[in-house]
Specification:
Blueprint (H helix, E strand, L loop, with lengths): L2 E10 L2 E11 L4 E6 L5 H8 L7 E6 L2 E2 L5 H7 L1 E4 L11 H8 L9 H10 L1 H5 L10 H13 L5 E5 L7 H16 L3 E5 L3 H7 L2 E6 L2 E7 H6 L1 H7 L3
Parallel strand pairs: 3-8, 3-9, 6-7, 7-8
Antiparallel strand pairs: 1-2, 1-4, 4-5, 9-10
């Protein structure tokens, strides 16, 4: 296991958001969390990346307990978070955003790494001197993922990468997610588009009101009547 949460409980004030959940991600996997809005998916990612502090439970990364560690330290350790809503620096150029993604690294960024980004997302090369705020929604999502990759993460946390994108762009983003994973990056994916998420990931967890109610291979979840009825429109 490269990443996991154990008996994780999180609350917003007095309102419980996670009720003792357990999630495991093995090295090299894509694992997805699916569920309705408010199920606790984003809260799970925010707790793993250190943005939220749990009431109880542990976050484990690479056999180390990182519960309560500051977000920038977690990023430097190898866990990079692409938040819902992208979180890019709109007033800075595409290039500046990419450079900031590598800010915590102690080694030098190589030209090959930039070339890798431009291979994954060719449009970013054309926009390199543009302010990030002038990019389309799809291009901003590409930039958010690219900026996270510049920190050389072992694990990438992706929160709603397809949100608000046209169907054609959704296909392109998910194709790249598979490519990133094939190159060796482990991915924990939160995604409202349950069908795309289950077609992309190896395993999935179904969340309802802060609890894990199902966990299986994605093939099994795609075949599950409960999942079909609740999340796949059938």
């Amino acid at each position: 296991m490269i990443l996991g949460v154990r008996n994780l409980e999180v609350a917003y004030g007095n309102i419980p958001a996670l009720h003792g959940i357990n999630v495991e991600v093995q090295k090299g996997e894509i694992v997805t969390l699916i569920g309705a809005n408010g199920a606790g998916k984003t809260t799970t990612l925010r707790t793993i990346s250190g943005l939220l502090k749990p009431r109880r439970g542990e976050v484990i990364f690479d056999d180390k307990n990182i519960t309560g560690t500051k977000p920038h330290v977690i990023t430097a350790m190898g866990v990079s978070h692409v938040p819902e809503g992208r979180g890019i620096f709109a007033n800075l150029t595409v290039n500046d955003n990419l450079e900031l993604g590598a800010y915590l690294r102690k080694d030098k960024v190589t030209d090959a790494e930039y070339q890798r980004i431009y291979t994954l997302f060719p449009v970013l090369k054309e926009r390199i001197k543009q302010n990030a705020g002038t990019l389309s929604g799809g291009e901003q999502q590409m930039l958010a993922i690219s900026r996270a990759l510049m920190s050389k993460p072992a694990v990438l946390l992706l929160d709603e990468p397809s949100l608000g994108l046209a169907p054609q762009l959704v296909q392109a983003i998910f194709r790249v997610i598979k490519e990133i994973n094939a190159e060796g990056t482990t991915i924990l994916l939160v995604e409202q588009n349950a069908h795309m998420a289950l077609m992309t990931a190896h395993r999935g967890y179904v969340m309802e009101t802060g609890r894990i109610v199902l966990h299986d291979t994605t093939n099994a979840l795609l075949a599950s009547d409960r999942v079909k009825k609740a999340y796949l429109g059938g």
